[in-house]
Amino acid sequence: MAVITDLAERKRQEERIHYLATHDPLTDLPNRRALEDSLTRVVARCQRGRRGALLLLDLDELKLVNDTVGHPAGDRMLTALAGLLRKKLRPGDLLARLGGDEFAVLLEDTPVHDTHAVAERLRQVVDEFRFTEAGRVFDPAVSVGMAVVDGSLDPQAVLALADTALYAAKDLGRNRTVVYRPEDQARTGSDRLSPWPPRIKDALRENRPLLHYQSVVQLATGRPEYYEALIRLRDEAGRLVEPKVFLPAAERFGLMPLIDRWLVGHLLDLLRGRPGLRIFANLSGPSLKDYDLLEFIQTRLAESGVAPGQLGLEITESVAVADLVGCQNWMHELRRLGCGFALDDFALSSFSYLRALPVDYVKVHGAFVRNLDADPTNRALVQAMGSGKRVIGEWVESGAVAAQLERMGFECGQGFYWGEPEAALPEP
Q1: pTM (global) more than 0.85
Q2: Structural domain boundaries, residue 391
Q3: Of 162, 193, 224, which residue constitutes the final position of a domain?
Q4: Do residue 227 and residue 125 come from a single domain?
Q5: pLDDT of 54-83, one tens digit each?
Q6: 183 and 242: one domain?
């Protein structure tokens, strides 16, 4: 006698889940996780004498397209540009989408002068591209930051250098390429290419950050479950600076604990006068390693008179997975006082971590939620993410998606369907 089990379907599902965990669902390009894995391998090979390069690309105009003709149009522009960029690369080159309007290109066995030619070719193809939607013509451009990979720096250092070069390209006027080599770091230090560290410190001293708030809504009632606080910055002239401009520099130069300290202090001052209000703030990865910040939160919370349940913290899935023990310590210390926690941007790579993390809410990544009403694959995957926690669907942009989430047992949703982030909270 024999008992035979056909595992083919399960294997196909596992392969599909792995593919989705390493690829961007919109463009079908490799995602940040896949890029970091490939970069690790390329750095190791470069230690044996090879040369390569990492290019980071930041597109202009996406926000304008999203705000004027809608996110579906922005998605179509991104998909079209991804196809154009892919055609300009060799078969062995890796093109990845990191999220939003950011892409990356990893080149191996490529001399520096050839790498610069590739960067210029990509910049030119975007510069010549025109996107037409609803009678409007959009003219995107791209800034490119490039770091040489020669095996002398680890993958995270290479990413940091490419990121520094990218922001130098943007500061110099956009639509250009800036190359940053490892020897530049040794000779000048990375501060030379970034004006942001002193600007961020000045802004904190002068109390120029400000918060916008977006509601997390109960699907059954339409009432806010809580509000998420999103940080912005005013520059020296009072102009609003988007987080994607200054937060990468703050992370790179170790300034996130200072920003998070300002954020928590500001929220506690606000909550002191609003006893029925609940606000969650995003906590960065570097802050979880700063136990002075943990002590600051505990002390300020005790002194403020604010009920601990009014203050919550959100930690992204990638941060939690990278430092599971640190996350657990923070959560246990603050949950003991009564603070809530949410796991943000939950995707597919860390089901096994959910039981280890004492979170109240799990926010399913919006890439799996946005087209939930029309995509049966996403429905099946999102349904599998039900974890016994209170589950929130992100990036909800239509009533059809909100209704689908409610039918699937989700309690809450968040997205433009209920409104964009606002600078003022509703009156009590």
Answers
A1: no
A2: 197-413
A3: 193
A4: no
A5: 999 999 878 788 878 888 888 999 999 999
A6: no
User: How many Å apart are CA 359 and CA 348, to the nearest integer?
Assistant: 17
pLDDT tens-place string over residues 88-141: 998 889 999 988 889 999 999 888 778 888 999 999 999 999 999 888 888 898
Q: Are residues 296 and 387 in the same domain?
A: yes
Would 427 be classed as within a structural domain?
no
If asked whether residues 47 and 130 sit together in one domain, one would say yes
Number of compact structural domains in the chain: 2
Are 205 and 400 in contact, with CB atoms under 8 Å apart?
no
